Amino acid sequence: DNPFLHRLPGAVFELYEDTNGDKAFDEGDALIGELTETDEGFHEMSGLLAKGYFVKEKTAPEGHKLDPNAYYFEITTDGQVVVVENGESGRGFVNEAYRGNLKITKDSSDGRKDGFAFEVKSEDGTYCETFTSPEDGIILIEGLRVGKYTVTEVKNKASEDYIIPDGATVEIKADETAEVSFFNEKPEEETPETPDKPETPDNPTTPSNPSKPVPQTGDDYNLYIWIGVLGAAVIGSGVALF
Asked: How many angstroms separate the CA atoms of 34 and 81, rounded?
């Protein structure tokens, strides 16, 4: 296994016999059938006779370009296993991915555009990169595989004084440029309210000295009131001190 390659399921390969033996694929070559995908990205057909054959891709994996070429090989000995590749040896049959571009435009309420960070992440999580906006606020990312991506502004030193907008989802299409814009507002500073000027109270009138009642002998009602008031004052003082 090559750790730098990603196996792709879903391709369909056809096998043709080189009927006329000229090693050139043409209309006269007979279709034998389709190879069986025995494991993700692995296709095979067994029981072939000692002859010349062509392998041709019929359906490419999703999101990848079809290779239109037919690849010739020969079976010459019993039990022989042939590996068909379409490029560099050891890389297997490689399909080029459909790709597009992404343009991120940045602006803010005070005109600042540079220094803001954005995370771009593919829907399947295989791609995740962070980019920083330049002076003109435009980030152009080329060669992204087709599919859906989320673009999220990441809080950093440049954005700490701004309200960070919600993220966006974009779809990258083959040979096209998807665009998304972000605009940052600075929060409005709250102006403290000026407290109302307190009113100047009127000069209080000086009360006249009230006459102090003198309890009379046998006046039980008045005596009860004074005891009650005195008791309340003592209890109130006790609560305040406690």
From this structure: 17
Candidates 60, 128, 124; CA nearest to 96 is 60
Q: Is the whole-model pTM more than 0.70? A: no
- Tokens representing residue 39 in the block: 């494991």
Nearest to 135 by CA among 96, 107, 95: 107
Per DSSP bridges, beta strands 42-44 and 128-132 are unpaired
Helix (H, G, I), strand (E, B) or coil at 196: coil
Beta bridge partners of 36: 44
Instruction: Give the residue among 94, 125, 124, 122 at the shortest CA–CA distance from 7.
Output: 94
Alpha-carbon distance of 156 to 6, in angstroms, equals: 34
Q: Which helix (H) or strand (E) holds 225?
A: helix 220-241
99 phi/psi in degrees, rounded to 5: -135, 155
Nearest 5 degrees, angle CA 49-CA 24-CA 78? 20
Return the HEC string of 58-121.
EECCCCECCCCCEEEEECCCCCCCCCCCCCCCCCCCCCCECEEEEEEEEEECCCCCCCCEEEEE
Determine contact, residues 179/172, Cβ cutoff 8 Å: no
Residue type, 234: V
Are the CB atoms for 18 and 73 separated by under 8 Å? no
Spatial distance between the Cα atoms of 180 and 219, rounded to a whole number of angstroms: 94
Per-residue pLDDT tens digits for 60-109? 999 999 999 999 999 999 999 999 999 888 889 999 999 999 999 999 99
Domains and CATH numbers, the chain: 1-96 (2.60.40), 99-184 (2.60.40.10)
